[in-house]
Amino acid sequence: MARTSTAFRCTECGWSTAKWVGRCAECQQWGTVVEAAAPTGITRTVKAAAIAPSQAARPIAHIEVAATSHRPSGIGEFDRVLGGGIVAGAAILLSGEPGVGKSTLLLEVAARVAAGGRRVLYVSAEESAAQVRLRAGRTGALHDELYLAAEADLATVLGQIDEVSPELLIVDSVQTVASSLVDGLPGQPSQVREVASTLIRVAKERDLPLLLVGHVTKDGTIAGPRLLEHLVDVVCHFEGDRQTSLRFVRALKNRFGPTDEVGCFEMTGDGIAEVPDPSGLFLSRARTSVSGTCVTVALEGRRALPVEVQALVVATKAPQPRRVVNGVDPSRVAMILAVLERRAGLKALGEHDVYVSTVGGVRLVEPGADLAIAVAIASAMRDRAVPHELAAFGEISLAGEVRPVAAATQRATEARRLGYTSILDVEAGSVRAAVERAMLAAKGSRERELDAAF
């Protein structure tokens, strides 16, 4: 008999230590080190016995390829993110902040699939059946082929699957379902691992598409073990600002399609509605030109979207001028201000407060918006309104040159489709030339407005 001593082991990666610590030194996860009985000393090694395989291995070229077809869910924006639809036997994980609309979206998906003649089982482990029924009645998601079960026990959920025999299974959420075979409360790493692996195994055996709702932590990562993201086939993130009705679905992992697609939705009083053409959501409705505004064309996945950047420059006597930004990277705005002052001749920026924001709550993180930010700041500084038909996109370097950006042809095509006939891009050469060109266009636009007025 080997003597045993108290040891502590990480439930995430298996790392062990002689004393308890709050954070695993191997995978850097918090709260995953638990007490376990670890054998010490010399023990007899038990070798695994070989078992005859049920099917012999074959050369990879001789294996027949089964056509993995996507079946549309009925929501075009959701199918766009998934790569064309839901694949049989696929495990899809949808994560997002609390209250962003995950359950509303999946309930709408369930209703669309049920309306297409396929049986759907919606398992709610967070809400009662009456609560889900009330929301379904408000959003118009009632259908005879949509079955609802409020269960939080894994064995009972498996029994519901055997009873209903669905063609689509939705579990809301994986962190609230528990298994009696594993110790611990629902949501702990061991419970999440057991529940997810069991449901995915059943989905693969029956070619049953599985949609799982996942909670997120404070820093926005998916709660539970990292193994959860490796087990599923598709990881989608549902995001949006609570102050606006706009929502985005992004694919972080997709074994059946691209990971650079974005689905656009809008939360309404009657549920959630897809927005197939969100071109006008991030533009202001001002009829007359206003100084300090410029339109850029940003890429959201493979979709080009026009976004209006607004800037306000106000003189100040404070020793430290304010730099307030919303929707853009503060460090890039600071760099653009330095380049404008050093390379474009805007010498007095250090004596002004600068405010930069985007319209519609969208966040611009790509460098392609640098030129539009620079033009908006220069327009606000010189109090000249950029004409409505001008759009700008390009990266600004510290040397003051305008560098090319990805998918420039697609951006220009989308801008021209929306009526932007004058485009500032890499052909401007330098940020000074681009700013002067925009100011000349602003002067000409002002003269045309005065001529029209008189």
UniProtKB/TrEMBL annotation:
Identify the Pfam families for this entry. AAA_25, ChlI, Zn_ribbon_LapB
Q: Where is the RecA family profile domain?
A: 67-216
**Gene that this polypeptide is encoded by:** radA
- Which SMART domains does this one have? AAA
Q: What does this protein do?
A: DNA-dependent ATPase involved in processing of recombination intermediates, plays a role in repairing DNA breaks. Stimulates the branch migration of RecA-mediated strand transfer reactions, allowing the 3' invading strand to extend heteroduplex DNA faster. Binds ssDNA in the presence of ADP but not other nucleotides, has ATPase activity that is stimulated by ssDNA and various branched DNA structures, but inhibited by SSB. Does not have RecA's homology-searching function.
What does the entry note on its domains? The middle region has homology to RecA with ATPase motifs including the RadA KNRFG motif, while the C-terminus is homologous to Lon protease.
Q: Which InterPro entries match?
A: AAA+_ATPase, DNA_repair_RadA, P-loop_NTPase, RecA_ATP-bd, Ribosomal_Su5_D2-typ_SF, Ribsml_uS5_D2-typ_fold_subgr, Rubredoxin_2
Q: Which residues bind ATP?
A: G96, E97, P98, G99, V100, G101, K102, S103
Gene source species: Agromyces soli
Assigned protein family: Belongs to the RecA family. RadA subfamily.
Q: Which HAMAP family match?
A: RadA_bact (MF_01498)
Mind telling me what this protein is named? DNA repair protein RadA
